[in-house]
Design brief:
Blueprint lengths: L1 H16 L11 E2 L20 E2 L12 E6 L14 H9 L11 E7 L5 H17 L3 E5 L6 H6 L8 E6 L16 H7 L5 E9 L6 H9 L3 E4 H6 L5 H5 L3 E5 L21 H13 L5 E5 L11 H17 L13 E7 L6 E7 L5 E7 L2 E10 L1 H8 L5 H10 L1
Parallel strand pairs: 2-4, 3-4, 3-5, 5-10, 6-7, 6-9, 7-8, 9-10
Antiparallel strand pairs: 1-4, 11-12, 12-13, 13-14
Helix pairs in contact: 2-10, 9-10
């Protein structure tokens, strides 16, 4: 046991030293089990359209997207599941039909867990950081939700502020000595050095969250959207999702009738269709560079693996959105229309941009410390309509509060 621990530590230290060299992911991943791929002969299937780590690690460096599983649950209140969650998701995902676009997708297998939950988080950080530095988008198949800390930490060395999108029925900011999945959000928000520009919480359920937690997020000028708002008008969530650099999706946000395979499955929540719509928005977001799907416990799923089927479809829509990205984000190009709205209050004018290709909207927000610099943040057509009526959109006020 001691020898195995030393060998694992040496391999990890070697990996850290060589992270800027040609990384051999084979050292840190286990192949996808053969039984996941039984009876898969359909030439139009997702399985036939991607590269998969079986006996040999595929050439992943030319990939647009890399999938990897994380069979790690030590941060959860629940015991280790008997079956691999990522592999159960693959059973459903591989059998879906290939979507549009020329796929360049590699499944590099399952990350070998560390000797502690904290070590696994560090491994996730280093793998994601390497992929991000090579313009490859990682898609993580978890694992308990606390593992998104590793996904977030991968952005620390990129020297930019990021917006973190968390889709979860709960706000995981409880002090708990043994369950990291209950306080990982607090770790992300309080992390130093601070590179978090915005934290966006979608689909929380008011009767599960104490008011002090919501008040704390409001004082930090972070954005929270309860499940009722999404049910009422999911299209208004598109610019919220479009602001994110990374997405963390806990399957407990989907109601238990559609996704029973979660420790915190709730009778109310997103429908499977709404979850797929949010993933489509995320895939279409040119800024989004990583996505993680967490909280799936296969032992709690039904006999048809309904939850795994929902998650696999969500991933399919994320990928479909990715291959349908249209915008260059070059607002000076002819691909964008510029609208200047005179305001009766401060600011004197508001500037909006509309993409001719996607018909999405952005709003210009001035930076107080630099009169020549402006942020262009996602917004909706309703924000533009509000400005034409002389009202400053709430989204503008929130951004201004955050950058002052």
């Amino acid at each position: 046991m001691v020898i195995q621990t030393l060998l694992s530590l040496l391999a990890y230290l070697f990996y850290i030293r060589c992270q800027n060299c040609a990384m051999d992911l084979k050292l840190f991943f286990s192949p996808v089990p053969d039984e996941v791929m039984t009876d898969l002969e359909d030439q139009h299937s997702f399985y036939k359209s991607i590269y998969i780590f079986r006996e040999q690690m595929p050439a992943y460096k030319d990939s647009d997207l890399v999938l990897f599983g994380i069979n790690e649950y030590r941060g959860s209140e629940d015991t280790q599941p008997m079956f691999s969650g990522p592999d159960q998701i693959r059973r459903k995902l591989y059998r879906l039909k290939k979507g549009s676009g020329s796929y360049r997708i590699t499944d590099v297998g399952n990350l070998n867990p560390g000797h502690s939950q904290e070590e696994t988080v560090l491994r996730i950080k280093e793998v994601c950081e390497y992929l991000l530095n090579h313009n490859i988008m990682p898609i993580l198949l978890g694992g308990s939700h606390d593992l998104d800390l590793g996904q977030f930490l991968a952005y620390e060395g990129l020297e930019k502020l990021v917006s973190f999108l968390n889709i979860d029925a709960l706000v995981d900011m409880k002090e708990h000595p043994s369950a990291a999945s209950l306080n990982h959000t607090q770790q992300i928000i309080l992390h130093q050095p601070n590179f978090l520009f915005n934290y966006l919480q979608l689909a929380y359920q008011s009767y599960l969250i104490d008011n002090d937690t919501l008040s704390a997020l409001e004082k930090l000028c972070f954005e929270t959207y309860r499940i009722g708002l999404i049910h009422h008008n999911i299209k208004e969530m598109e610019p919220v999702v479009r602001e994110a650099d990374l997405m963390s999706f806990d399957i407990n946000a989907v109601k238990s009738s559609d996704a029973p395979g979660s420790v915190h499955a709730q009778p109310f929540g997103l429908t499977g269709e709404e979850a797929c719509q949010l993933c489509w928005y995320a895939g279409m977001n040119e800024k989004l560079s990583s996505a993680g799907f967490y909280g799936y416990h296969p032992d709690l799923d039904d006999q048809n693996l309904k939850t795994a089927a929902v998650i696999s479809t969500m991933i399919w829509y994320l990928i479909e959105g990715f291959y349908n990205r249209k915008d260059t984000l070059d607002y000076r190009s002819n691909d964008y229309l510029r609208y200047v709205v005179a305001m009766p209050v401060d600011p004197e004018t508001l500037v909006f941009y509309k993409s001719k290709k996607s018909e999405k909207w952005w709003m210009e927000v001035g930076v107080p410390t630099n009169s020549q610099k402006h942020l262009r943040v996602p917004c909706s057509y309703s924000d533009y309509q509000m400005a034409t009526k002389g009202e400053v959109p709430d989204r503008y006020i929130n951004i201004q509060s955050r950058i002052f």
